[in-house]
Amino acid sequence: MDTAQIILILSFFVIALVYASVGFGGGSSYLALLAQPVFMLAPEVIRPTALLCNIIVVTSGTIIFYREGKIVWKEVWPFLVVSIPAAYLGGFWKLQDAIFFVLLGITLLIASLLLWIQPEKITASSGKYNTTGINIVLGGGIGFLSGLVSIGGGIFLSPILHFLRWADAKKISALASLFILVNSISGLAGQFQHGLPDLQWQYIVPLLAAVFIGGQLGSRMGARRFNPIYIKRITAVLMLLAALNILKDHWYW
């Protein structure tokens, strides 16, 4: 095990710990790290690895939120009904390597902006934008992007729902966690329709173990130990730097 892999394992542990505390899976940050040129990994390895890590991290968080009564099916189904098949379609869609990296860089740029400007506190409101139709379209669009780029989608859904004042912060985190889980599974299923890739398990298994441990700790700590707004602001800056580095190496003017 070389130094680069050890750094990657430790980074994945910290990402899972922090992201799980606010209801995210960390897929965008896993992608941002794995896509760095120093690791020389192909999209066929990067995409499923990020989704597998997502699934491991958010599963326990979703169960905890459900037991706490924060997931109400009549409220969350509009976000899932189209997003699940859309994520599958996005995962099935095979992109050229250059297009994937450019799309990933742009996606991370947008995600970093959304995280940075997300309001610190929200008051739930059943406003005019909280309708079944809007929620279905919102879930479907983010679901397709989730499958295409291999993020869970919560990093987009959560800030948008905060702006729309869809519900209190705890319910939004619960929905984001469930959304990430089902779309990661669906996107992974779409990718595997092309056949199982060589995932270099000797390289991937330590990463999965790291996010499992970090996710378990983070989902139980929650916001009691971490201030969510500071987590999101720091994550936004790191994601911006990673996105610029990816685009610098893969954007051809």
From TrEMBL:
The listed locations are: Cell membrane; Membrane
User: Could you tell me the superkingdom of the organism this chain comes from?
Assistant: Bacteria
Q: Where exactly are the transmembrane stretches of this chain? A: 6-33, 45-65, 71-91, 98-117, 137-160, 201-218, 230-247
Q: Does the keyword Zinc-finger apply?
A: no
UniProt keywords (A-Z) are: Cell membrane, Membrane, Transmembrane, Transmembrane helix
Matches recorded under InterPro entries: TM_pro_TauE-like, TSUP/Inactive_protease-like
Kindly report the protein's main subcellular placement as a broad class: membrane
**Looking at the keywords, is Protein biosynthesis present?**
no
Recorded topology in the membrane: Multi-pass membrane protein
Q: Which residues form a coiled coil?
A: none
PANTHER family from the entry?
Answer: MEMBRANE TRANSPORTER PROTEIN MJ0441-RELATED (PTHR43701), MEMBRANE TRANSPORTER PROTEIN-RELATED (PTHR43701:SF5)
Family according to the record = Belongs to the 4-toluene sulfonate uptake permease (TSUP) (TC 2.A.102) family.
Q: What is this protein called?
A: Probable membrane transporter protein
Give the organism the record lists.
Answer: Ohtaekwangia kribbensis
